[in-house]
Amino acid sequence: MASVLDRDPAFENIPSIKAKTLRINLNPDIYGTFSEIGAGQETARNFFRSGGASGTIAKAMSAYDKDFSDAIYGVEKDHRYVTQPRLKKMLDHEMQLMEERISRETHPDRLFFSYANTVATIDFSKRYKGHGWLGIRYQLDPHQKDYDEIVLHIRFKQNEARLQQETLGVVGTNLIYGAFYKYHKPRNLLKYLYDHIDKDTIEIDMVNFSGPNFKEVDNRLMSLQLIKNDMTDAVMFDSDGNNLLPATVLYKKNILALRGSFRPVTKVNLDMFQKSYDIFRRDPAVDPERTIVIFEITLSNLKAAGEIDERDFMDRAELLGELGHTVMISKFQEYYKLVEYFNNYTKEKIGLTMGINNLIDIFDEKYYRHLSGGILEAFGKLFFKDLQVYLYPMKNPDTGQIMTSNNVKVHPRMKELYKFFKYNGKVMDIIDYDPEIMHIFSRDVLKKIINDEEGWEEMLPEGIANTIKEENLFTKKLVKAEKG
């Protein structure tokens, strides 16, 4: 059997799409189906054009008519077609047909695969650029009982349907090639998805790896790669570590976001969340059933000495997940950019929970010098919609004074601007805070953990200290860096 693990240097040095498709077509064992809905059969077309496709393509199909599509794959509960559940049904159906119609006795060495995509390209008014789901379910060993699977979501940035179709064909080809020949290096596989594609043509905002050959892959780290590689601006994952599509999670939702380092998450962080959420959900405009709470970390907050410490990232993510929270990693250092991002997906109420220092930073002009309209342009984007800031107080370590929205000191030039937003109810104090925990700061807890000091355990939510000790979080890489 010609193994897919064989590395052919001649092919590796030819990065063309034709070389990729030909390498797959000339492998006598790789055999599967293509099902593409919504943007033509562009991926299959690449394989047909390169030659030798008869030994690779069992079937290529498109079910453009919705009635035909429903007859084949079933009707979705929400009657939508460009969704992850739809993609999964396509992969299920086509792989089942492969297993039923291709005899293992006749073809014992065949490596089955099913590639599918369901896509909506740009509309006639050009208001919606389009997006799509694509994925591959496949084998790397004919005796493999459980299939491997890679699923990703893309957003188009081009303004012409034909160009989007061509781009989709290239991404699909890169995915299939990477699945068979770069599966052992999933980080590189993600980068290779952009082979022959400019990064300003598509955005990849979600990816999930699953199956026996990806059992060591943590999809949260794969999400982080999308951010690091400038493939997207924000990624999300749930408390179980499963990657989420931000557009789906945020769509038409009320959003309460709490930004922080969470290094580690403390009692203050939870008090900020709980007290602000109580205020948020009591708002008559807020439907608690359509509300999402997000613990958000900026990319700059993850960087240490210019590089992202992935171990440190995973430690934070694990603790937030243990507490049952949805986590978002974003590139938005400024709050107005974060709010702009949310406004892409919802017109409902948005709340930002923050401390005094964060509020002072918002009113610092230096963060807006790159904008032609300066701080006024930023504030127009930040407070334009139905947004409210929930402010957690802080005790002045020198005077013991409790700092709130009433006595916070912003730059003299910003005083009147601050008063305007304060008067119009855009800033609301959290008044039922816990005064017994105001001395707790994540940086102090982290220092105690690293220096193996006592007394940090009671500063954290119940159970978190035990997890940190049992799994040796926030120590291994940080201690190593100290010694270096």
From TrEMBL:
SUPFAM superfamilies referenced in this protein's UniProt entry, alphabetically: Nucleotidylyl transferase (SSF52374)
Keywords: Receptor
UniProt-listed InterPro entries: Rossmann-like_a/b/a_fold
Record protein name field: TonB-dependent receptor
Source organism (scientific name): Pricia mediterranea
